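Q: I'm teaching a short session on how sequence maps to structure, and I want students to see two examples side by side rather than one. Could you give me a first protein with its sequence written out and its structure tokens following it? Keep the formatting plain so it prints cleanly on a handout.
A: Of course. Example one:
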Amino acid sequence: MPTTRRRGAELDTAIKSAVMDLLAAHGPDGVTMEAVAAAAHTSKPVLYRRWSDRRALLRDTLIEVAAASIPTLDTGSFRTDMLAVLRGWAELFAGSQGPLMRSIVMAVAADPELAETFYADVVGSRKADVTALLQRGIARGDVRADIPVGVIRELGQSVLWHHLLITGDPIDDELVLTLVDDVLVPLTAPTTARS
């Protein structure tokens, strides 16, 4: 029975899924054009028509995955906004994509061009989203106006990254609730005075 030729979004999804599977299983070095073509059941010329090389393919895939993973909706309060963001990170890290996230760190460390794009497009986007979240909290009055935005913005996520990459400690909802209710909310509350 002949196979149906895939095009457009369907083919793109198959290719990027193959990249993620190879990356999670073998790290960045396992993502070759040959391996991706085989895993996605397509040909290398199809890949080369879309991406100039494996780095471009890897970069586009990682940026899309990372940028789409964390919610940024306004839930109505700083607490619930932060719970949504950190639960998104926790789900990403503790779920089946945890190995992929570790591989992303390896790939970024090994490829200056990927690192530059990742920091600008993904990390920059995340910073802007959390800064907007904090500004909403200040405007609502549930976050004090003099918070150190750069520190607060990174605080919860940095603990989750540390668990993922350094300690291997559990990343679960109890950790997220502790970070939000025992650290972030008290630290940013309008009644908390800076000395």
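Q: Perfect. Now a second example for contrast.
A: Example two:
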Amino acid sequence: MTDRPRTLILNEDRIDRDLDTAIRELLSRCFPHRKPLFSRSRILGDNTPAFTVVILAGTLPIAHLAAVDRTITAGGEPFRVAGIANVCVDSPFRKQGLAGRMLDTAMQHAMKLGFDFGMLFCQGHVVNTYLRNGWQDIPPAPITYIDHGTKKQIPPNRHRLYYPLNKTTFPPGPINLQTNRW
């Protein structure tokens, strides 16, 4: 009998060297174009996760999601968002609802931590996964971020989604991530 995969919410101090290595290997398989980066670190830029959700089969991570803590402005008002990054499920475990389980776990935890919204940017081929799990389109507006000291805009081919937490409706108007994107 196979045990059901376990879902864990982890702070950085609970991710030991072995688990970090196993997560980086999973990320490298799921995002081969970023393998050189993930061979060194799970953390992209200064996007240290506020918490990480992993699903383990035994001791091996088979799914991963990172949430960064950001204060952004939208329509000129500040909001605290859980920026979702590096969502992946290892190939043999896809189509089993694991991404939805991680998203649900992450958003429940983010609500308890006082976040206003979940927020993410994704490619078109995965957008339906998020929409099926309660994520919503951010109203059309320019979204700026800082890249090496220069203001840039999120490319239009990236889907922009939010998840209502302690606030229910994402405000209209320009959005400033106030830092690099995650």
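Q: What should students look for in example two?
A: Point them to this: The domain at 6-176 is CATH 3.40.630.30 (Aminopeptidase). Also worth mentioning: The helical segments are 17-30, 35-38, 98-112, 127-132.
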